[in-house]
Amino acid sequence: MTPTTNTSRAYATRRALAPTETLLALTLAMITLLAAVWITDSFEDRLLENENERILTQLSTALRHYERETGTTPPGLIQQATAALLDHPDTRRHLDGLPLLLADNDQPILLDAYLNPLAYTETSQGSLPVGDFVSAGPDGRFGNAASDNPEDIDALIDDRYSSDFEALF
């Protein structure tokens, strides 16, 4: 046998992928790609949840320090509450590094990890007022348990409160 015959025979036994094999290879590639995208999205979601928890924990700590210093909760809406926390050195340090937005009137508004403005609520436990920062979560919508609209009630599912992440200090 000559070397040319061996090479010809080797090439002759090679064949192209059958349509079924091509389809199978493409399907496996797509499944792998979709799994990678899903894992990446899930990882990013978890990172944002962790960052939101960190922000709310810092705010919870700042609120408790403010309440301990002043004997009351910060007044008003989010802008006034944030300004009150920024006015006290002990609480200001807990706000360092948190995302802030300045409103039209130069009043600061705190943002959550999803870059949505936080809300501030004052409630009471017994006769004591209690302040709480609220994140609307990834959907950016605050829920309302008192609403007749099911969408408003459903929006409560991902709302997060700073009191959910009480920090020990």
Strands, helices and their partners?
Layout: H1 3-13, H2 19-70, H3 78-87, H4 89-95, E1 100-102, E2 108-110, E3 119-125, E4 128-135, H5 150-154, E5 160-161
Antiparallel strand pairs: 1-2, 3-4, 4-5
Helix pairs in contact: 2-4
**Approximate shape:** elongated
Our count of domains comes out at: 1
Query: Structural class of the secondary structure composition?
Result: alpha+beta
Strand coverage percent: 5-15%
Order of helices and strands: HHHHEEEEHE
The N- and C-terminal alpha carbons lie at a distance of 87 Å
Tell me about the biggest sheet?
3 strands, antiparallel
Mean pLDDT: 81
Rg, nearest Å: 28 Å
Explain this structure to me?
The structure is a single chain. This protein has 169 residues and is of the alpha+beta class. The chain has one domain (18-165). 50% of the residues lie in helices and 14% in strands. It contains 5 helices and 5 strands; from the N terminus they run ααααββββαβ. It has a 3-stranded antiparallel beta sheet. A two-stranded antiparallel sheet has the order 1-2. Strand 1 and strand 2 form a beta hairpin. The protein is elongated, with a radius of gyration of 28 Å. 19% of the residues are buried. The model has no long low-confidence stretch (mean pLDDT 81).
